[in-house]
Fold each of these.
Amino acid sequence: MDFPEDLRYTREHEWARKKGSNFVVGITDFAQQQLGDVVYVELPGVGDPVKKGESFGVVESTKAVSELFAPVSGKVVEVNEPLSDAPETVNDDPYEEGWMIVIEPSDPKELESLMDAKAYRAFVEEHE
Amino acid sequence: MRYHPHTPEDVRAMLDAVGAKSLDDLFRSIPQPLRLTRPLDVPPAVDEISLFAEFRRLAARNDVAHPPFAGAGCYPHHLPPAVDQLLLRGEFFTAYTPYQPEISQGTLQALFEWQTFVCLLTGMDVSNASMYDGATATAEAALMATRITGRKKIVVSAAVHPEYRKVLATYLRSTHDRIATVAFGADGRTDLRALEEAVDGETACVVAGWPNFLGVVEPLPEIAAIARKAGALTVAVTAEAVALGALQAPAALGADVAVGTFQSFGNPMTFGGPAPGFFATREANVRQMPGRICGATLDKHGRRGFVLTLSTREQHIRREKATSNICTNSGLTALAATIHLSLLGKNGLARLARLNLERAALLADAMKRAGCPRVFSGPAFNEAVYDVGDAEAVVARLAKRGIVAGAPLARWYPDLPKAKGALLCVATELHSPELIELFAKSVRG
Amino acid sequence: MANPTGWKPTMEKDAKGGAAATPEPAGAGFATRGIAHEEPLLFERGSKGRSGVSLPAPAGGGDPAAAIPAALRRDAVDGLPEISELEAIRHFTRLSSWNHGIDTGFYPLGSCTMKYNPKSSEALARLPGFADLHPLAPPEMAQGALELMWRLERALSEIAGFDATTLSPAAGAHGELCGVMVIRAYHVAHGNPRKKVLIPDTAHGTNPASSALNGYEVVQLASGPDGRLHPETVAAAMDEDVAAIMITNPNTLGIFESHIQEIAKIVHAKGGLVYGDGANMNALLGVGRPGDMGFDVIQYNLHKTFATPHGGGGPGSGPVAVKAALAPFLPLPVVVKEGEAYRLVTDPRERPQTVGKLREFWGNFAMLVRAWALIREYGPEGLAQTGKLAVLNANYLRALLRGTYHLPYDTDSLHEVVFDDALQKDTGVTTMDVAKRLIDHGFHPPTIYFPLVVHGAIMIEPTETESKETLDRFVGAMRAIAEEAKADPEAVKAAPTRTVRARLDETRAARRPILRWRPGMKVE
């Protein structure tokens, strides 16, 4: 299982990566493994507001549905449109091509409250 | 008891294996005060011969000597015996929801064919595996429209089946959604001006009959245009599905959702149930649809097969966030409709629809000669409202002659100008020209 | 014609050569290879101009649809099949041969009560006096139907211990919707609809979904280590915002909720009501009555308890029985007997507190005929024997399979038993594999991966209509699979090998949905 060092993580298994002044968001390798084959991703529209800890979308496998929780508050400025036609990307490449949205944060400091790779790895190992 | 295979020796051997002394022992987890200590107060058991005698006596007290002239959401049609012969195959009727696709391909492929029939007849892209009935399908369509649009108001034509409207009201009551009802005009068509006034930016959908409860063919393109202008969906409701063999597909006229019942295909009236509700819509709405959906896929050797799919919408996975609570639907009745439609096919359905139009025209003509003109002037399929003077009296009088004369409109529309005389009557391929003549004469007494 | 099904004439061999795929004959359900036909979709066969019906010739002459505007008409529906009657018969007969039904073999699908569906009931429901009856026939023309409904209502009230029953709901989940609506109407009549419904974690998904449809927030309650719901859990969650608790008893683990009376007391004390999901009523027939246990409302599933056919997924029927205090809120219609005559009450003015109508017309009447036929055949002794033998059969399987499969809850169970795949963990064989391998032995698998509280659940409900020999063969197959899992796990994972299709790709189906035939349809 992969835990890239440059990311921050939530307890709900989302990751966030700094990109300029914005944050790219997706789900972790652990999350995609737990879900199994992802068959559908439902994402917000560009311009929609998101709030830290609240649901911004849904990811589905054939037998399970998981809500996606925003790691930080802000506004959606980009959405990974190709995922709607190729949801398997979330399984194949969760940290790169499988990204979901880009958030323009209202309070960039919120990122600090998230786990780093080491803490997230420990969190996953404890809960596995 | 022929359904219980256990001999006393079996019971003893099985109790021994379990380590229990008696059958009652098996229930020790039920506290004694909660056990029933007397026999249930139901009639004593009967043997098969007595059972049939008893049920024949009951059945004989239902007068079904003639095909009814009442339709009103449940239609007398000829059922080819081939349909029931196939339905009685235990592999179909004693299977359940196809949870194990490898041993349910029969049910699944038939469902896929049902979904295709529904799509072909309605012009929609996708259909589910069936609903309980037309009324609940209509209520679920309204609920889907509220989910898609995020709006809470439903605009429904007063000419939509009154039973469907009642069920819609029951379903929406606890979620506080609002229903606005739009009147129909003297031609029996939904009043377009009133509709335009009722539809606004809060409207999730407009619900109209296709054809409507009065038997009248609605101006569906105009209705859909009004809805679309306001960003609302159009739900077309069809209770008499044979009409879809002569009327344009609702999707082709602008409807976004088509619902109703396929009772007319392959299902007896059986006092109003069961019959397969249908639910079809455009591709974009597929993930908001209620109910089971069957889809095509491949098996591990690359052979085409079928499975239940998109099940994350459903209650067993999404629980309180599901698109509906529906689980078991109307599988066997949907199969009956699928078989009947396969027998009818393209030519048969066109002929059946034409026959219904012809018989309805004969009835209209005979009723006119009997002094009972049509109440509404709009174009009709196989059903129409006639002014018979006193509809309830006619129904009571013809009941004595073994004929269900029709549905007195005053029961649902007491404020209609000609309510007292208004009788909704149907004519189908089962009503011979002779029977139609006889009926029209009897109506006038 | 192209070969749209992708059928290949040679038997597929699994990776290991297929020899290991032959199940042990001992314990097998006598499944052998038969003649299986490939069959395309209806829309892929036939020939222009064919039809399979016989109808009177149209009279011809003028256009009977002339009054309908041309833009609103069509002459024919393109794409419909054109086949003869025999082609249709063969099509569906072949499809039927790809199904496993109760008539084919053992079908121990937990929580679904797959008991034998009597042929008598089928014949009786088809009597013309029932089948050809129009729902708007005046009551004097429908006295037999109304009497049957009236008698069934009373019997169902008696069997579950309630005061009144509605036959209107179309299935179990529809009955739940009805029951929660009635509860809501009761609370509204008492001034406050309340906000929440309590539901144990063992419940069917329909319970929370039915509550949500009524605008209630769902609060999930954890069941205890013995698989039971405990009074203190309920007490901690119970307040005056709770409209009801929904309890399945016995629950989906097959375990009787023996604290039910105390739980009901806690809920009633705060003005809440107790809803019973009657999905598992088969265990209690003639043995105990929910109405005597503190329940205020219960729904039946006639296709479970009273053997109306499951039909490949309905139609069902979900009558709802209630205590007297809730009777005024039941949906319409209600059957009443006045003197010697029966009548339907359909006018809300006669029942001002009714929740209204839940479906068109009066209920799934043909299912009511079948259920009443079964109750008449059974009588009081037969009903009680049904409950007892259903529980005997389940406990027999439990006794013979424990040790071979892990029993996550060792509490006494009634009509069904839940195992899991914990003992198979080291072999890599999962519940799914066991289920698929059972198919090769000629059995329908049990319910799997439900209830959700058991990881890898295998939920077995044999029902009372199965013989000891069938159960013994099933046990033999389950044991053979457990042995095979140790010796040759790949053989188990390759199952099923004898079916018309091998494991189907559900991921593909969901990622690229193909939900109907279109001309030139290809699945690839």
Amino acid sequence: MLRNDELLRDVETFILDEVDLLDSWQLDKWQELFTEDGRYLIPPLNVKNPDTIEQGAVVFLAHDDIRMIRGRVERLLKKSAYVESPRSNVRHMVSNVRLLEDDGEKLRARATFLIYRARRGMVTIYVGQYFYKLIREGDSFRIQEKRACLDNDLLQPQGSIGIIL
Amino acid sequence: MSNQVARHPAALRPRRALTEYLRIDEAKGRFEVDKRAFTDEEVFRKERDLIFSKCWLYIGHESEIKNPRDFVTRKVGGRNLIFNRDRKGEVHAFYNVCTHRGSMLEVKTSGTQNVFTCPYHGWVFDGEGTLRDQADPVGGYDECFNEDGRYNLNSVPRLENYRGWYFVNFNPKAVDLPTYLGGTKEYLDLIADQSEAGMEVIGGSQHLVNGGNWKLLTDNLTDVYHGFVLHSTYFEFVLSRTKNPKTNDTLFQGFAGGLGNGHNVWENSYAVGRPIAFWIPAFGEETKPIIEKKKQELVERFGQERADRIATTSRNLSIFPNMVIVDNVGISIRTMYPETTGSLSMNIWAMAPADEPANLRNVRLDNHLTFTGPAGFAHPDDYEIFERIREGSENSPEMWFDYSKGMSKVEEGADFLTARGNIFDEAQQRAWWSQWDRIIAGAETLE
């Protein structure tokens, strides 16, 4: 764990700005935060080391390279992506932001998330930890990897992850 | 009238509904299922007693308990079971319950261990199910207490496997597994034959609950018709990625139909890329020699024709009542069970050749999760629809779900259980529902 309150505030602001784009469904802007080698990952549920595990021995829930990230956004913005058409009420809450590593160019951070999705009287809660690999760019960052590790041990009540975590 | 006779020749074997839930009108080319089959408590109870207590149900694959002392726990047909390999290598399926006071014995989902110990009074059972210890320092039990094995773990009445896929049956008098599987064995072979090293289930299985009746999934997973409509966003993504000039409804060519006993299949002869063993540029240049070598091995083992079928065609196999194997770009196995009339529980496992190189494995898994995953580009829309179906039909007055597509095109002499039709038609679903109807009516006991 790193102690650097100024950097921590910058990282926290960046993450809050990022999830604001998800809540306000500005997905085109959200995808632009990723680097060309950027990845958006959701490891499987119930694994011991979700923050480091790689696909191969296990199958992920989401394993997006930049093409897949763009494809996911393009799909979700269509009216024919029925799981979010019409849109659900979604709110991302982020707290417990921690700096893990910083080599001057790249840094790693961790945060806790709680995501609320309401749809036709049904509520889904996604809870877990984000692990970010960020790269400094100007006075902000770009995302090289966003990994959403779920604490849920079963996907319910709809069984899907139709939104972006 | 003469027109209708021509479309429905008298040579067709008589086909009629046995329960009130099925309605068949040959003259009008209609095959319908009462929505109460999806909503009634009475049907839910009949399914529990006649289907989930009488049919062979998939419990797991041999690769999940590869080594002695390996186990997994899972719920099959509403029963909590332990599926394990004992220290001698023998495979078992036990009820996951301590024979002393009924506590669930093992709560971990998988592991490797010599014994199963109940934390309540310390009763210990070995991998063969034998009661080994009762934490009883004062000799409170009579010496002949368990002489007859009365307190050993209870095995499920029947456990059999076909080429590594293990099934259980809660009816001791059930027909044997190979007889039950019948026409599906040909398709299981097409998967099992893909690697001499064997096939394996990959970790990180997906388990989910959805607010729809379980039969919406058995319907949905065998249904090509909805694919290019509901999943247009998925196919648009795939076509843009492969720069394929085709439209999504040309990606399927082939047949769908019944295999007897309610089992059914669709086979797509439109060649999509397959890590076994049909290379396309989207897989990456570096995988080309590996895939071509794999194809050559298949030709040497099985000859050109069968090697081509394994390598280039894809298929969706539905084993009655609740197991579906998709052998497409990736392979996935699913089971689905009712929790209530309006809620289902599904497991999804990915499968691959045990000796597959890492880069090919990734291509396979990425494809698997892009379509079928709960966070993929297709299935979330299905789950949304299942809930809309529940919401739409549960309180509506009379409603019949329609499965008539292709009714007038089935070949002469076929009955619903084995009839084949176009891949976009619904012969495969009629095969499934015909068996459901026979079993719910009590006309088919599977003994």
